[in-house]
């Protein structure tokens, strides 16, 4: 028989609870921070800085390790699935340089989207996965009567893995056939000190592997490219023009060299890593009463510098077009005027570097237990995603395919700059825990996140609109002290982007070439994120 004991509810407890509910307001959120770092934290809306869950305190608030009173081991396994979807439609009056029918009109993506992982040393998993599966291990050490607790753990504080390669005709292939951004902490030496009966401090040094992979087909719908294509059609006809070699060579590339704004221009592939990237976590936990606690933590960021390889593959369209120009009398003059390369190799590869900062994160929160069996948590979070204002890929050579874009502001073809323009909002998380007897706890969490990506910067590489994350969890402790925790969560967000809403996606202005692969199209869609995990912990 399960019994529930109701303790006295002091007026001060009720006042604190009311204060929580008054201060709690709809939040704003960042990208993927804390989505999957801890099974228990996820089930509580990640509102755990004042109630750090066991060894997972290393990430959320290292000061919470002082609540561990014996040597302890923790094993975790989880699965996560990110499913973006979108549909594409032409608005009335659609026209890109005289071309009025985009082959992607009335298509959609999402049916065959899978997940992916980045394995240290090996790289991104080549086979699309139904969901990304991961595991974690944590160890904590505490001697009786000592004020110190030491611990280390492996966990994933940030991860996005989207694989659209299963369908070769997926319309989203022009904005990320495969995207993997993953940070794996494989060692995190942490120390916590119990300063007094109610106050603790903690310091940790997470050492992480950062992986980045991007493979995408490219197309560049633009007024100028459309105009050139129509001019070729009029000047060259079906069989070319004998006067063309004395002019600009618009017909010299043959049928393959006809410029089409909706044609595939090429493919780019990046794979970069930072094998050792340390940061610093600090935390404070104040527990003056059994029914109230306050916590705060700060995770320092890093200027993560990644290195790796790149490959650019060029389709015949631009290669043959440039070849035709240089086989004519006036074409070389025209090409030199616009800074075009003398030729475009079919494949160009080499070394590349990318600085992709790991952003700082601050979190404060409180825990209130108005009743002996009922607990409420609320946290405020801030992550400095504004540091992701742009991605700058630095190549070890001039990229011929990028030289074609000099007219549109791509001055240095040894660099590819992809603007991001992210923001750094604050968001709240809410958690509730209900004790049923002495061995079972039931948890629920809610985390409303307003995206760090403004509507004007949304794209399909990071299709992260506003999200509402709902979670449930269950904890069970055996008579021998072994604890099992399970959690499941679901998040869904939608976006609606009429033509010219996001100049990272669907603007058709003359200079918006890098990068607007769906210029002039209306795009609507969303993303679904599912997470489930289980943790087992015990003394050893």
Biggest beta-sheet profile:
14 strands, antiparallel, barrel
Helical content, roughly? 10-25%
Provide the gyration radius in Å.
27 Å
Average predicted local confidence, pLDDT: 90
Low-confidence stretches: 1-31
Distance between the termini: 31 Å
How would you name the oligomeric state of the polypeptide chains in this document?
Answer: single chain
Beta strand %: 35-45%
The helix tally amounts to 7
Structural class: mainly beta
Strand order of the largest sheet: 1-5-6-9-10-13-14-17-18-21-22-23-24-25
Q: Which term fits the overall shape?
A: elongated
Number of strands: 25
What does this structure look like?
This protein is mostly beta strands. It has 7 helices and 25 strands. The chain has helices at residues 11-23, 39-43, 57-60, 223-236, 316-326, 331-337, 400-403; strands spanning 72-89, 107-109, 118-119, 123-124, 132-141, 148-153, 155-163, 178-187, 190-194, 199-204, 207-218, 266-278, 281-289, 292-299, 305-314, 347-355, 361-371, 374-383, 390-395, 415-419, 426-436, 440-449, 467-477, 483-497, 522-539. A 14-stranded antiparallel β-barrel has the order 1-5-6-9-10-13-14-17-18-21-22-23-24-25. An 8-stranded antiparallel beta sheet has the order 7-8-11-12-15-16-19-20. The longest helix has 14 residues, at 223-236. The two termini are 31 Å apart.
């Amino acid at each position: 028989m399960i019994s529930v004991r109701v303790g006295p509810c002091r007026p001060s407890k009720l006042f604190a609870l009311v204060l929580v509910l008054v201060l709690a307001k709809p939040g704003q959120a960042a990208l993927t921070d804390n989505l999957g770092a801890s099974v228990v934290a996820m089930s509580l809306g990640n509102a755990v800085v004042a109630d750090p869950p066991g060894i997972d305190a290393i990430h959320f608030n290292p000061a919470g390790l002082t609540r561990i009173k014996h040597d302890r081991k923790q094993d975790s396994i989880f699965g996560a699935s990110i499913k973006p979807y979108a549909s594409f439609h032409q608005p009335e009056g659609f026209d890109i340089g005289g071309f009025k029918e985009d082959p992607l009109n009335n298509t959609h993506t999402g049916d065959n989207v899978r997940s992916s992982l980045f394995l240290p040393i090996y790289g991104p998993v080549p086979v699309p996965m139904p969901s990304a599966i991961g595991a974690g291990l944590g160890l904590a050490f505490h001697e009786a009567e000592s004020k110190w607790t030491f611990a280390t753990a492996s966990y994933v504080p940030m991860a996005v893995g989207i694989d659209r390669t299963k369908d070769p005709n997926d319309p989203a292939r022009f904005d990320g056939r495969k995207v993997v951004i993953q940070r794996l902490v494989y060692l995190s030496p942490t120390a916590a000190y119990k300063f007094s009966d109610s106050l603790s401090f903690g310091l940790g040094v997470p050492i992480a592997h950062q992986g980045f992979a991007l493979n995408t087909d490219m197309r560049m719908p633009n007024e100028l490219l459309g105009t050139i294509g129509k001019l070729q059609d009029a000047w060259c006809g079906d069989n070319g023009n004998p006067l063309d070699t004395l002019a600009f060579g618009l017909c010299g590339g043959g049928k393959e060299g006809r410029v089409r704004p909706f044609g595939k221009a090429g493919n780019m592939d990046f794979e970069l890593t930072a094998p050792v990237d340390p940061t610093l976590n600090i935390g404070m936990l104040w527990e003056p009463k059994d029914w109230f606690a306050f916590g705060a933590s700060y995770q320092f960021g890093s200027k993560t510098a990644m290195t790796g390889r790149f490959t650019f593959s060029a389709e015949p369209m631009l290669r043959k077009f440039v070849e035709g120009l240089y086989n004519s009398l006036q074409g070389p003059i025209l090409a030199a005027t616009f800074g075009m390369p003398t030729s475009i190799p079919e494949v160009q590869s080499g070394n590349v570097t990318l600085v992709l900062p790991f952003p700082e994160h601050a979190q404060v929160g409180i825990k209130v237990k108005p009743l002996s069996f009922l607990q409420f948590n609320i946290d405020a979070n801030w992550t400095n995603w504004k540091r992701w204002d742009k991605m700058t890929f630095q190549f070890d050579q001039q990229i011929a395919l990028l030289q074609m874009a000099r007219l549109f502001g791509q001055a240095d073809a040894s660099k590819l700059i992809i603007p991001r323009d992210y923001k750094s909002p604050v968001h709240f998380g809410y958690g509730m825990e209900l004790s049923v007897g002495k061995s079972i706890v039931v948890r629920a969490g809610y985390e409303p996140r307003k995206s760090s990506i403004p509507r004007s910067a949304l794209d399909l590489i990071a299709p992260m609109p506003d999200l509402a994350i709902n979670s449930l969890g269950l904890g069970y402790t055996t008579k021998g002290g072994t604890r099992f925790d399970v959690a499941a969560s679901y998040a869904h967000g939608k976006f609606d982007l009429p033509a010219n809403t996001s100049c990272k996606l669907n603007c058709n202005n003359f200079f918006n070439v890098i990068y607007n692969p769906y210029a002039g199209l209306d795009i609507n869609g969303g993303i679904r994120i599912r997470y489930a995990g289980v943790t087992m912990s015990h003394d050893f």
